[in-house]
Amino acid sequence: MSAPDIHSARPSFASFAPPQRTLMGPGPSDLHPRTLAALSRPTVGHLDPSFVGMMDELKVLLRYAFQTENALTFPVSGPGSVGMETCFDNLVEPGDTVIVCRNGVFGGRMIENVERAGGIAIVVDDVWGETVDPQKVEDAFKTHPEAKLLAFVHAETSTGARADAQALAEIARRHGALSIVDAVTSLAGCELRVDAWGLDAVYSGSQKCLSSAPGLSPVTFSEAALERIKGRSRRVQSWFMDLNLVLDYWNSAKRTYHHTAPINNLYALHESLLLLAEEGIENAWARHARLHRMLRAGLEAMGLQFVVAEPWRLPQLNTVYVPEGVNDPEVRRRLLNNFNLEIGAGLGPLAGKVWRFGLMGQSCREENIILCLQALAETLN
Ligand code: PLP
User: What CDD domains does its record include (predicted)?
Assistant: First the structure.
């Protein structure tokens, strides 16, 4: 008997028509109509002169968002995780000691990145939902003066806690180390000043407070980080993420082909960064802080309790305990089905215990908060 011919039946599906949701989870966030429209503009070649001009603007716009003069500032092709690996793979050499702060899921991923790059991770643990304790970091440097890098998450999306990036980077610098900072959730959602705070390698994501399409990871590297990368004793293990190669496309007049850039996705990032520049970065931070207070008042009026203490709470990621006796997945399912509203579940040890309400970028609007509070009140009653 001959094998059935799996190619004989031609698949026939309708075009995909996603529902219109309101995204108030941990990301992605809602895209502004201008950003969505940018995605559907005609695709050009990645070496087309018009495109190359747009790439130069993108770098300027990203420097503004990061508040930096760093020449090496560009969007890595790939989600935040690729930006993360780009930082670790380029800055960690086998045998290097790296102090890593862990107070949530994403600090844990940093440890994995260090170890996969052949480094030795010295882990500084803090309680999930609390900030990173600078004294513990100071102590870790005293015990490990050989440490070459300090890695921490500025905005821990799994808990909603902020780290004092300026204080932590200052400790690293005092001990002769560079800093690697995860700003996936912080960029454009709360104060982040790469130059003023002396951060060395910072990665972010397009889909959180920038409100662009998922799949790009803006990064920025200080001169000191660039020198470290150029002076490596071994080649970067990853070909795709080796900055020495990528930069021939992004940062040189030669524009040597490295990989096919995600053209339309870059149009969208450009548009979302224009929107940010039109609003003004400090105004965007202030909007997130103001609307966080509005959401907080509503959630607390319903008796919900925040996980993170006020001074370290991220305005763009609000984590509250699921009330006793309430069916977590059922509530989220009803919010989605009845109100087209997405909120986030807990991650890791917080799974089933918390809800995460994102107020990121274009999702951070008064009408979303009103929808969210009304929908939640009806669902919990
Ligand atoms: N770091 C943080 C703090 C995040 O919140 C995320 C995603 O949620 C990532 C890294 C990974 O980003 P991506 O999912 O875009 O790969």
Answer: AGAT_like (cd06451)
* In the block, residue with structure tokens 């579940």: 345
Instruction: Report the C-alpha gap between 338 and 323 in whole angstroms.
Output: 21
Helix ranges (H only) for 67-190 are: 80-91, 105-116, 134-143, 165-174
ipTM of the complex: 0.99
Q: Contact at 8 Å (CB) between 172 and 194?
A: no
| Rounded-to-integer distance, Cα 75 and Cα 259, Å | 13
User: Tokens 């690697």 map to which residue?
Assistant: 180
Instruction: Assess whether the C-beta atom of 79 lies below 6 angstroms from ligand 1.
Output: yes
CB of 27 sitting under 6 A from ligand 1: yes
- Please name the residues in contact with 227: beta carbons below 8 A apart, sequence gap of 6 or more: none
For the Cβ of 213 lying below 6 angstroms from any atom of ligand 1, the answer is: no
Query: Which residues does residue 321 pair with via DSSP β-bridges, in sequence order?
Result: 354
Global confidence as pTM = 0.97
- Mean pLDDT computed over every residue of the chain: 96
Q: What is the sign of the dihedral through the CA atoms of 183, 187, 190 and 192? A: positive
Question: Which residue's CA is the closest to the ligand 1 atom numbered 12?
Answer: 80
Positions at the binding site: 356
**Cα–Cα dist 299/100, whole Å:** 33
Map residue 101 onto helix, strand or coil: strand
From ligand 1's centre to the CA of 183, what distance in Å?
9
The CA-atom distances, in angstroms, between 240 and each of 34, 235, 379 are 31, 12, 47
- Distance between CA atoms of 377 and 375, rounded to whole angstroms? 6
DSSP 8-state class, residue 265: H
Lookup: tokens for 164: 């004092």
